[in-house]
Specification:
Blueprint: H1 11-17, H2 23-36, H3 38-46, H4 53-72, H5 80-86, H6 93-107, H7 111-120, H8 124-136, H9 140-149, H10 155-167, H11 174-183, H12 186-199, H13 205-214, H14 217-229, H15 235-243, H16 248-260, H17 267-274, H18 279-292, H19 295-301, H20 310-327, H21 331-339, H22 342-355, H23 358-367, H24 373-384, H25 392-401, H26 405-419, H27 427-440, H28 444-454, H29 460-468, H30 476-490, H31 495-508, H32 512-521, E1 536-538, E2 573-592, E3 599-607, E4 610-615, E5 624-645, E6 651-660, E7 677-680, E8 684-689, E9 692-698, E10 707-711, E11 739-740, E12 743-744
Antiparallel strand pairs: 1-2, 2-5, 2-6, 3-4, 3-5, 7-8, 8-9, 9-10, 11-12
Helix pairs in contact: 1-2, 2-3, 2-4, 3-4, 4-6, 5-6, 6-7, 6-8, 7-8, 8-10, 10-12, 11-12, 12-14, 13-14, 13-16, 14-16, 15-16, 16-18, 17-18, 18-20, 19-21, 20-22, 21-22, 22-23, 22-24, 23-24, 24-26, 25-26, 25-27, 26-27, 26-28, 27-28, 27-29, 28-30, 29-30, 29-31, 30-31, 30-32, 31-32
Length: 759
Amino acid sequence: SLGRRRDAKSIPILAKLVTDADPQTAGAALDALGAIGGLDALAALLAVPSVPDALRVRRSAALLVCAEGLGRKGEVGVAKPVLAELVRPDQARHIRMAAFPLHVAALGAGGNDAVLAALGGADLDLQRAAVQVLRQRPAADLSQAVAARLPTLSPTLQEQVIALFADQATPTAVPAIREVGASGTPGVRRAAIVALGKLGNAETVPALAELSGKADADGKRAVVEALARLRGEGVNQAIARTAETVPEAVVCDLVQSLAARRAREMAPVLVGFAKSDKATVRTEALKALGEVGDKAVCRELIPMLPGASGSDRSRAEDALVAICRREGTAEPLLEATAKATGKQRVSLLSVLGKVGGEEARAELVAAVKDDDADSRLAAVRALSGWDDASPLDALLAAATDSEDLRVRVLACRGIATLAGKAGRRSQGEMAGILGHAIAVAPRAEEKRTLLGALRTVRARRALEVASAHLGDPEVVDQAALATVDVAESIGVRTPALANAALERVIARCSDPAVAARATSLLGMTGSSGNLAIGGKATSPDGLNKDGAAHGDQAAIDGNPATYWDEENDKKLYRLRVEMLEKAKVNRIKIVAWVHHQFSPRDFDILCDGKVIKSVKDAQYKGRDLEVRIPPTLCRAVELSITGYYPQSPAVRELEIYGMTDKPEGAPAPKPAGVADGLYQTGTSLAYARNGRTLWRLNADPKEGKPYVHPLRLPNGDVLTDLRPADHVWHRALWFSWKYINGVNYWEEDKKTGLSDGRT
């Protein structure tokens, strides 16, 4: 307590207690004298003749605290003898290292010599303490003296001191750093590289180039980073000059550094390196030109294309793509393409495909009819890799009209690829395009690829196209898979058409897995009337989804556990649903997040972009809101939400009701090639009458026991169902009744495999 109170009057009493026989008392007295501090306390501590070994460190600590206090008062010189004692080797390590900076300060002008001696000595503790002095008290004269002795220090110290010079921005140390970096250990070289990058200028470039020649892969990356960091005038020019006189591997690093420095004025120099007889130099130069080149560079690169090797041509093309995308123009490419022939034209067409844009697409569309076969193929390949589906029509024309088999093959493949990017085309339109492409495809391989693309199209036409190819033995399995996928996606809207197509799959498909899927789906009935099911939801408001929201499609997936929601507190939210086909809509239902919270409140209902009804201050029943609208024939329904119950208009489900514009078609035909009466597949026996399969007995060993599905009434209604799978009597005559006279005919006992009631 006396020590903490800085009670100087108690020093005489404490001085006596230092020699107390009780070590705890003596130790507390030593601590207190150190805490009180000042000349009197220091004198009292020095007057102690000796202390037990157990208290020796505490006495040294007390002396150190006193010296620190005197240092804060500017009187550290008084403690010079004490500090000299505290840095001796027989003192505790932590005492020595803490005392050394004070010792240096107490020595005044002689402190630098103490630091240099410590750095050059063998005492590791004082070496570390000396580095700490350099870090805490940077001085120009001391730094200069240390730099002069840098080559004589140990490698470990060299690394530490070099890093310190870099952190303290000591440019006078650069010559010494260059010297030790050139001859030092890998660690020293790495430290020198980093430091030269921070401290150097144009004159440092040759030294870094020399270090690059001795470095491993990590060191070479460090050299590139250091060169990129150099500041001052003439650095880029110095890099270019140095690159003319160094080995190939170093040239590559220097070229990389010009790219990292975004040295656009050095593009002509890089063009020269791109023509080097060294493959690695050409590679790095072409990469760099992609980073720093401009339209003028494009005009230098284009003539190089015809004579370039395959890898060089590819890298030159990549550079052209990068430049044109960055500059936002394809002008140099278009100018050259109009005049080019042979390999140069082929390369330019490939580059145009990667650059993109309306002008590039127009040039490629024209090139599809080029007299040169390689140019035609290059144009089709480029269009097939387009960022969107805009070249679909051109590819379809090429697949239809070209006399070049290779063009037709590539065009069909391109159509299949771009079909997945055709978000702005209607499903029916895409079904028509794919159907046309399948019809003109020159080989079964392309037909199979196009049928694969058809699998994701949700339209009646897609179902018709897919099922029409079930009679082609070369593509029957792909046609069956497409038919099943499309039927599953639109069957609730077009059950008769879907069921007829599924029957054809079962009759024709040789793939048992696909046939089993078709069988499981057979017997589809119409939906409950929610026209949003199977449609496509979008949010054309540019907002991001919020929180744990599941995206646009969650608003119409039929699952209230998922929901659509966007960023809070915005002025306008839009939720648009494109139905599978046109319908006469007469009402909508919104299932909101909760009652009058995170719910749409004020909104317009739009049908095909036209406002049909406006709702203000919507009042929900629970979380449900139904809104009737004038019957309106449309394909898309949109909510334009301008007001909401705090804090955003989350929608669990947006349901749309009305009547479809198209009635169901005529009674579905029976499977092609199957006459009235019994017909058989590998796993089933069925009976057809008047264009319909009336019943089918399925006996696939993989499905366990045989069952009947479908079973139809004369009017076409299907009495059987395959869902849920554990209800076996769904698949038999009596499925409609669970209990008859109190006996359960429905469920089976899991152990016996039998139901209570059997017929």
